[in-house]
Design brief:
The structure is a homodimer.
Chain A lengths: L1 H4 L5 E7 L1 H4 L7 H12 L2 E8 L3 H14 L2 E5 L10 H9 L3 E3 L1 H10 L7 H4 L3 E3 L3 E3 L8 E4 L2 E4 L3 H11 L10 E7 L3 H14 L4 E9 L2 E10 L2 H19 L1
Parallel strand pairs in A: 1-2, 1-3, 3-8
Antiparallel strand pairs in A: 4-5, 6-7, 7-8, 9-11, 10-11
Chain lengths: ~250, ~250
């Protein structure tokens, strides 16, 4: 359909950086936030990776993702401590120098009392050459954007503020709309009808999500499309199928 | 140090499969569980990826991860509906046929009332050739292991039961031990001392995790090592540094 082909699709990947997520010590709260945020902007989040605080792991992931998607967002590893190695890893990925950035130095010098802009804090002013700063309203130390890669803090409140600062600069696509139909049925009972509805509406994505509670299975069926009318028609067909099978 | 070199390190990656995580519709609960589980077993979780329900995305991720790590665990996409394509994607990654597996058929035929083992439910008995089944105590439909790849359900209660079934079959390494020191300080004030302690104890991993609440920053310092004595000594040094700087 012509109007479907005109849809603009913008893609993104999210890279979570930090030993603490992979050891289980910290439970990630950023993936769900970024997923919701991208959906609300009209950007398709296509992949997430979580890697260790390891220079070559970070650089390899940044390069793999920036070549594949329109945008890459990272969280974690831009603080003042020795284990914060995201800036140098991203500089390595882009093969550019990492130096004290006069703009970042100015922001942080103003933020700390005189004499308190210590060498550790100066680490947070090291920005890869050619990058733009990303404003940090919460704790001042900026993130940065280089090419299509946006480097943000890992602390959720700071990451979220940085995402708000980035959002107006992003190209966005046609929003993916969604509807949910709840079925008091295990998904295996509705599977054949759903497959037929999916076939009938190729411009939708129909997902079936089972939930177990107290040994009973129920299902949420999520119908997604960038076209409001197609979404409505497919959702009605799903609701009808659920009603008929629930009988 | 000789005893450090004798440590056995076993590595793993976790692959989360599902559009619903990337759209934000479902908030992942499996990454944190698997991270904790691997740490408790003595397996180093090195990487996590989240990919769409897309055959080539899944197969590419499985192949990248299985060649790099000792074990791969996946969650999601093994149910009865059209959007569950993990089994066929993993079969494609290993270039083996995907057929109805007599062992899986036997389990599911017994589970459903006579005549209720429908074509949709038979999808759950399709297992890549050469795979072993993974028991599912919750809802019967099995997962499977092929090579070093363990394919599990996405519903957390089922995934967790499958992990318990897999655990006794896994080779494990020397456990990574950890201690945490809480500091009522922003991490930039302790950064230089931590870097020096990290340098003094190369057989530890020292991580610094800031937390923002009500505009105030505190820090958790996590010291990790496979050697109990080294861990104790490094932790004491960190605690002393925090006390001196707080003092």
């Amino acid at each position: 359909m012509a109007e479907q082909k005109a849809d603009e699709v913008v893609t993104a990947a999210f890279l979570v950086i930090g030993d603490e997520i992979l050891s289980g010590r910290t439970k990630d709260k950023n993936i769900g936030f970024v997923a919701d945020y991208m959906t609300s902007l009209g950007i398709d989040l296509k992949e997430v990776r979580v890697v260790l605080d390891d220079k070559s792991d970070i650089a390899d992931a940044v390069n793999a993702l920036r070549n594949r998607y329109d945008y890459v967002f990272t969280s974690g590893g831009i603080g003042p401590t020795h284990d914060d190695i995201t800036a140098e890893s991203v500089a390595a990925a882009f093969d550019v120098p990492l130096n004290l950035d006069p703009r970042a130095v100015a922001i942080l010098e103003k933020h700390y009392p005189p004499g308190q802009f210590t060498p550790a804090r100066q680490r947070m002013a090291r920005i890869p050459e050619g990058a733009e700063l990303i404003q940090n309203k919460v704790s001042k130390a900026p993130g940065f954007r280089i090419g299509n890669v946006h480097v943000m803090a890992g602390v959720p409140s700071i990451m979220q503020a940085m995402m708000d600062a980035i959002a107006p600069t992003l190209r966005t696509g046609t929003k993916m709309l969604s509807e949910t139909v709840s079925a008091d049925l295990p998904e295996s009972r509705i599977a054949e009808r759903l497959a037929a509805i999916q076939d009938a509406y190729p411009d939708t994505l129909i997902g079936s999500y089972p939930k177990a509670s107290d040994g009973k299975f129920t299902t949420s069926i999520v119908i997604r499309s960038r076209d409001e009318n197609i979404l409505k028609a497919a959702t009605e067909d799903v609701a009808r199928a659920v009603a008929e099978i629930s009988g």
